[in-house]
Amino acid sequence: MAKSVKEQLIKQLALGQFISGQAIGEELGISRAAVSKHIRGLQEIGLDVFCVTGKGYRFSQPLRLLDKTVITHQLKNNSFNLPVEVHSVIDSTNSYLLRRVPHQVKQGQVCVAEYQNSGRGRRGRQWISPFGSHIYMSMYWCLEQGISAAMGLSVVAAIAVSDAIKQLYKVDVELKWPNDIYAKGKKLAGILIELEGQALESSHCVIGIGLNINMPAKAAEDIDQPWTDLQSVVSNEIDRNQLVSTLINCLITRLTQHKESGIITMLDDWFKQDLYLNKPVRLITGEKETLGICRGINNQGALLLEVDGQVKPIYGGEVSLRGLL
Ligand code: ATP
Ligand code: BTN
């Protein structure tokens, strides 16, 4: 389906009223058969469109689209003059920014999208990204100190996501080292940090955040672990534009704090929210599994794992942490 037709169709349906196939066809200059094909295309990307004979098509719920103007107006730090791009359909917001590194990106540049057709988690896993339901957002951040400083970035970003949620909805979340945000014991959001650069040079980082807001039942069928969404833990209605602006504000604040004073100044915030603090855990590294007790993180963002009475730092990479109880 051509992107422009898809976008126009979505904009019309987002108004929340029934629109007949004929009216859509006339507006977009396509046949009714083409309209129904495009509607199927929308259903395939996760939009819940239904049809009533004699009335036409409608979204099952009103849809408020992401809006660049609304997002940028709520940004706190105007001096940054942050470029924010809002896309309807994209492969992955992380891939998009990575393709622009190093010359076509500015510090703090943001890309958000309504839909990702190749949303990624760590180690090439898929991130389920239905249209208009959640937040898929990436920010470019250059670390002059080089790749070593990037190690704790997922910890910094996870704290920023928690700050934003707390600020807007007064809800507490849990943080699972190294890159997950949980609510009531289920995965609410994930962070994907991708880097370019050499050890001693500036490191180009893309910080990707996938935050579930309102999971459609069909998309949920493809997720193979317990998940949750923000609408299940928050009673007010969620305004995704306001949430995106707040996420950007909180990220910039925490990244600046990280640059100026390091993770050491955020340890308290992490420890208060650490999902597994002082609990027995299983650390999975490829084929190897280590049992231990989680003792939080150190000032570089490494996991502190106690095994046989000895606490050792575990640096990120190809490792996963699981609870034992
Ligand atoms: P770990 O990072 O400890 O290995 P993980 O199993 O959550 O934990 P990730 O790579 O962090 O792995 O995340 C990708 C996984 O998240 C996918 O394999 C899938 O199970 C799950 N997932 C995919 N999309 C979503 C989503 N929208 N919401 C919640 N979970 C999702
Ligand atoms: C994880 O839990 O493994 C991380 C998930 C990260 C998903 C986000 S959505 C925005 C950005 N673009 C991507 O393709 N992935 C990240």
Can you walk me through this structure?
The protein has 325 residues and is α+β, with helices and mostly antiparallel strands. It folds into three domains: 2-59, Winged helix-like DNA-binding domain superfamily/Winged helix DNA-binding domain (Arc Repressor Mutant, subunit A, Orthogonal Bundle); 68-271, Bira Bifunctional Protein, Domain 2 (BirA Bifunctional Protein, domain 2), CATH 3.30.930.10; 276-323, SH3 type barrels (Roll), CATH 2.30.30.100. It contains ten helices and 14 strands. It has helices at residues 3-13, 21-28, 32-44, 68-73, 93-100, 153-169, 217-220, 230-233, 240-261, 267-273, and strands at residues 49-52, 56-59, 84-90, 110-116, 135-143, 174-176, 180-183, 186-196, 203-211, 280-285, 288-297, 303-307, 310-314, 319-323. The strands form three sheets. A seven-stranded mixed β-sheet has the order 3-4-5-9-8-7-6, sandwiched between helices. The chain has a five-stranded antiparallel β-sheet with strand order 13-12-11-10-14. Helix 1 packs across helix 3. The radius of gyration is 21 Å and the shape is globular.
Write a short abstract of this structure:
This protein has 325 residues and is α+β, with helices and mostly antiparallel strands.
Any key phrases for this structure?
SH3 type barrels, 3 domains, Arc Repressor Mutant, subunit A, 325 residues, 10 helices, 27% strand, BirA Bifunctional Protein, domain 2, 7-stranded mixed beta sheet
